[in-house]
Design goal:
heterodimer; A: 801 residues; alpha+beta; 7-stranded mixed sheet; 27% helix; 24% strand; globular; B: 291 residues; Uridine Diphospho-n-acetylenolpyruvylglucosamine Reductase, domain 2; Uridine Diphospho-n-acetylenolpyruvylglucosamine Reductase, domain 3; 3 domains; 5-stranded antiparallel sheet; 4-stranded antiparallel sheet; 14 strands
Chain lengths: 801, 291
Amino acid sequence: MTVTEPTSRALDEIKIGGMGASRKRVEDNRFIRGRGHYVDDVVLPGMLHMEILRSPLAHARIKSIDASAAWDIPGVRLVLTGEMMATRNLAWMPTLSYDTQAVLATDKVRFQGQEVACVIADDPYIAKDACEAIVVDYEPLPVIVNPTQALAPDAPIIRDDKQNQPDNVCFNWEVGDRDRTDQAFADADVVSKIQLHYPRSHPSPLETCGSVADFDRATGKLTVYMTTQAPHIVRAAVALIAELPEHLIRIVSPDLGGGFGNKVPVYPGYVMSILASILTERPVKWIEDRTGNLISTGFGRDVYLEGEMALRKDGRILGIRMHTDSDHGAFFGDAQPSKFKIGLLHSAFACYDIPTAHLTARGVYTNKAPGGVAYRCSFRVTEAMFFQERMVQAAADDLGMDQAEFRRINFVRDDDFPHRTPFGFLTDSGQYEKCLQVGLDAIDYPGFLKEKEEAAKNGRLLGIGISCMTEPLGAGNSREYDILGIKMFDSAELRVHMTGKAILRTGAKTQGQGHETTWAQIVAHELGLPADDIVVEEGDTDTAPFGMGTYASRSTPVAGAAIAMAARKVKAKARKLAAHLLEVSEEDVEWELGRFYVRSAPDRGVTIQECAMAAYSNMPDGLEPGLEANAYYDPPNLTWPFGCYIATVEIDPVTGVWDVLRFVAVDDCGVRINPMIVEGQIMGGLTEAYAMASMQFITFDEEGNCIGSNFMDYLLPTAWETPGWELHEVVTPCPHHPIGAKGVGECATVGGPAAFVNAVMDALKGHGVRNVDMPLLPDRVYEAITERHDVSGAPPIRTDR
Amino acid sequence: MYPSRFAYEAPSSLDEAIGLLHQGAGEAKVLAGGQSLVPLIKLRFASPELLVDINRLPGLDTLDVAADGSIRVGALVRHRDLERSTDLARVQPVMAAAAPLIADPIVRTRGTLVGSLCHADPQGDWAAAVTAVGGHVVAQGPGGRRTIPIADFVTGPFQNVLAYDEVAVEAVIPAPTGQVAGGFLKLERRVGDFATAGTAVALELTGDRVSRAGIALTGVGSRTIDARAAADSLIGQVLSAQAIAQAADLAAEAAQPNSDHRGSAAYKRHVIHTFVTRILTRITTTSERAA
């Protein structure tokens, strides 16, 4: 039997907007026209407005709250205090890390910006006026703003609300093989050490958090429009915790103006708006202001890391020891889905072939905002990879080895997958050395080293920094990852209409990632339907299938896979319809993009659209009508994209100001669905990496006042100072993902910072400096240059004024 | 960010505006570019009862750069107008150097130089430039006009000498008598950030010698600092390395910085020293010296 080459009739995948097409983002049609629909655009009849009164003090006992003047203001409908919440058992709520968090303070305030009362009024101006009219009598208490203070023997206990909480430690945790690691250090020729602080940062989505709660007494239905990256988890939480019936709870996450992890947790404001709507029987809107967002919602990082590396003289790494002290603020509210107390921090060193490692982690309470979130990363992976690459550079320097060569000889080899990391993760694929080489070639590594040497003769300080990492993205699998017991799978539901147009719904929730564009491309790839014929809908729990939401770069690895699987189910049914239409048996039907045909007579075929029409108008006997399918996808493993980032910098030795000369990024995220969107993600991630390395931090003075409560103190970089990015790619498909894709949205944020810091430290080599902690503000670099010592720890708030 | 309740008036004449301010009896504020006032109101750091919007007043948007080098900047002249002025670089290099460093491009399209002077932020940039050139502010109130030297205009952080019913109608940069040179350098963590430290230098030279000098500092004290001793040390001098070093030392001494999240006091002082040195050294290379 001859097989006729069928390519002539297959659709051009790029033309239909399939995999690999740099299709323009369809959601931008409404965004650039100002026609997005955000929570603050929700206006309901009779809607009231809520404002929150926040604590000015970081730690104080509440002696009394007098809200009588607030009640007297015309237009005020409701004033809520902790005492009133307590009568409904809502003064405290559980966190995503099995701790509790105050909704409204009852006994004490534990951080500056904590919610103390809220006012619901006819308009937000009245509500704000009324907040100012509430008189709170505070008795100040000693304040703790860092782990050292928290762990001091005489430290005041922040969480005196908890039984069995004799100190400020919220956990001690360890992972790895202690004995074997001890042995590795005993066998080492050289031991290299480093100590770092990853400062507190904030995801700062440009849209702050907010909600519109609408409880309908007549139907008993609660609808909440809210800024959430995970609407189904919210519905589950409301059902399980508030004991409202799940079928009468509808969570709608409309267009989101960014999330970056900040919109994963459940915040007190949401809870209060829901209660307020139930009590007033009116819709209640709460829109957080910028300061509220910066000082009270989920931050990132704030971890002190120290560790050492056991090394053989020839450069091989024998073992790693690490310890972390993480600052969780007043409530352990980390929004993370793993069973590991310090998230995936032990994914550190996953790209290196290291026999053994051991990590101890300790978390503490402080008088700072709670709710550490995975700010554009899998949880704590940013800290892990930053530590890893700073440690690697320090070790290479200690050995007197070239930093690229040191990485090369320790990388996991291409033929050594699947590879078990020293902390127990299983990585699946990669071409690490190739990525590094692409980067070194792009930056002209030997050329730059020469240039650097020449420049040094003229007193100029040039440096080059490398950062390589593989990041665990795409939680689950369900064995190891869950939120409040709900397993980390995801879902898709694809319905093809009779004219071949389709609607796709998923349990993920786009917030800028471009799901409306890329998800349609996956369907186009699987079914040959033009991407423009597929509408994508997410975020409404009444219509979308149950899913775990979008964060930790999990959407393409998990929901993306579910989409492919749902499309394949549709295709399997379409094949039956095609066989029926072609009057042959199913086994004789072949597929090419967009079309089924008879194997022995390729000219005889039917399009996917013709199959769709048949599903509603010409079904074979015994086949149920319609053409739709859903899929729940539980990934067998995380995906492990790889990134290699290389920065070159020049430091002004007189002022400590440093400029990025060039920045090369090589990303291997497997198969790219939409290369343009991937590149946009990488550029955005690098910009955030640059921000953290150069200018960004939230810190606190000794009274616990937050320095970084607005965008003049907490800096987002602009186009003016952001360097140009040079992007390159290597493609190693993920072996277990249906379309070979890996997560990518966060790699650059995770891997980027170490490249900048390593570059500055490289330029300072010979100045007696081993480490300057981020952000590398000019004064810190200047101090390192002139004082010839490390500049470590949280950026100090000196108080000599 | 919801401000307290306030009234808003947009008068069409200066007399009307002054009348409204007078009625406001200290509870009224003038709104020009709004780039400092509006954030303060939004954050409820300021709660004026009345905003008097002067944007409709005629004649206040004049930027007059005279051939002799004198400059009149009306109260509605935006930072952007100064940035785009082709004459400014010729007649007053320190002003031209400062213009593109004010805040960020968005603020520059709305904010005004006169408003910036009135706001009297210790980290403001224009006040340093205007101090260095020895400018003054013209104010008009019910009793008529008066001219206030910039050195007397600002009385403290966010405080000026204007009576509550006076409007600052223009800033005047006097004509120089010698050859003009100068520069403005600012260290900021990011475009749009307040100055960690900033330095304005304005010189007039007769031949090779300095005949007039002004050095002013921003971000390093509770108000703009007129580094008079540093400037005076240059009078009659050739800009030798020694003279530059002495002026830089004196300017750094004049700074009164605080340590904060933008840097330590010692670092800020060092930056002032560096900036004075750099501006003066560049002037000696003549490339930045105006004709």
